[in-house]
Design goal:
Elongation Factor Tu (Ef-tu), domain 3; 20 strands; single chain; 9-stranded antiparallel sheet; 5-stranded parallel sheet; SH3 type barrels; Rossmann fold
Length: about 375
């Protein structure tokens, strides 16, 4: 049997992962990652790292396994939080959960686990892994379609996958809770965590204002009939300018808003809700349109730059001029849609059969063959 270090988060999923590994005869070690301790940006009673650490300890004691706390807060600030600030400052919308897995859980945490003599690290992700005879590791969607978290693992590489175990990936969530209750684990009825990875629920504007300044600018409404939306091009943002619409309000900074956002605009008196169509951080303008069916919310293609494309399956990487039929999503929990990937010298185009809605530069697009996630990329436009 193997020595496995489990990332005990203090939640039910990682608790059951540890329990199942122990039941299978593995030597299990529990390790809690302390990545964020600043409570200032969090909502009241929503900074749970101390409670989570205590719950993780109680689970380890119940299972009779060694337990340690690993402080990665300095690296987390550098690799995740500073990255988030920089992306928002540039007018892009980052996904810290994807970065947490690539940079923290399956990098620094993995290194720490290997230093303890671990053969594998395990997490409570709803994802699955198989390994074929040729040694290729395959990242598969979790069996529970409502909880599938393979998207959050879309930046892992073959080396990281070779050391990863996902013990609950084949189970539905209700079954995980049943197992936890039957095993007498304190986390059996605990609510799932929400908010930013390792930080918790935050008021995002308050969090961003720790480093990004308030800069009052114009909110400009653009009609759905504008010629700007009639000839969209792949790889280019909407060519919106101030004279394409009407000023309907003001905002505290374009870098605080993201495409598709509805809340926080504070503009009333419209027949239909306003949605953010685009932001221009250089001119500090937020462009909006009425209704969730506004043509400015839909894009027939997303574009990824060559250096921002990652293949979980490197053997399937496209060369310029090659194409591949896949299924794809551009955010977590979005239904997979059929799409065509086409590689060019200047980047990679992902063209869905029906236009993507609310495409936010900086987010990750992920593509699949069947249930297998084979690659991902940062959306450029």
């Amino acid at each position: 049997m193997a020595r496995v270090v489990v990332g005990l988060s203090g939640g039910v999923d990682s608790s059951v992962a540890a329990h199942l590994l122990q039941q299978s005869g593995h030597e299990v070690i529990g390790l809690f990652m302390r990545n964020w301790t600043d409570e200032s940006p969090t909502l009241e009673a929503e900074c749970p790292w101390i409670e989570d650490s205590n719950d993780a300890l109680l689970v380890a004691e119940k299972l009779g396994i060694p337990f340690q706390v690993l402080d990665l807060s300095s690296a987390y600030k550098t690799r995740i939080v500073d990255y988030m600030f920089a992306e928002y400052q540039a007018g892009r919308t980052p996904n810290p959960d994807v970065l947490c897995n690539r940079e923290i859980k399956f990098d620094l945490f993995l290194e720490a686990a290997l230093s303890l003599g671990a053969d594998y690290v395990a997490t409570g992700h709803y994802a699955q892994k198989t390994t074929s005879e040729d040694g290729m590791h395959h990242l598969l969607a979790g069996a529970d379609g409502n909880k599938d978290q393979s998207y959050f693992l879309c930046q892992l590489n073959q080396t990281q996958l070779s050391k990863a175990l996902f013990p609950i990936g084949h189970l539905p969530k209700p079954e995980v809770r049943r197992i936890a209750k039957e095993a007498g684990l304190v986390t059996a009825e605990k609510k799932d965590s929400q908010g930013l990875c390792f930080i918790g629920k935050v008021r995002l504007p308050d969090f961003l204002q720790q480093q990004l300044s308030i800069q009052t600018g114009q909110i400009i409404e653009v009609s759905r009939d504008s010629d700007v939306f009639k000839a969209p091009s792949c790889g280019q943002p909407w060519p919106l300018k101030a004279d394409h619409g009407t000023v309907v309000g003001s905002h505290p900074g374009a870098h605080f808003f993201t495409v598709g956002q509805r809340k926080g605009l504070l503009v009333g008196g419209k027949p239909l809700p306003l949605f953010v169509l685009a932001t221009d951080v250089a001119e500090n303008i937020v462009y909006v349109g009425q209704g969730e069916d506004h043509p400015g919310l839909y894009r027939p293609c997303v574009w990824m730059m060559p250096g921002e494309v990652h293949w979980v399956r490197p053997d399937l990487a496209l060369q310029p001029g090659e194409s591949l039929e896949v299924s794809a999503r551009i955010r977590y929990r979005q239904a997979l849609v059929p799409a065509r990937l086409t590689a060019e010298e200047s980047g990679l185009a992902l063209v869905p059969t029906a236009p993507f809605k609310s495409v936010a530069p900086g987010q990750f697009a992920a593509w699949y063959l069947g249930d297998e996630l084979i690659g991902s990329g940062i959306i450029h436009a």
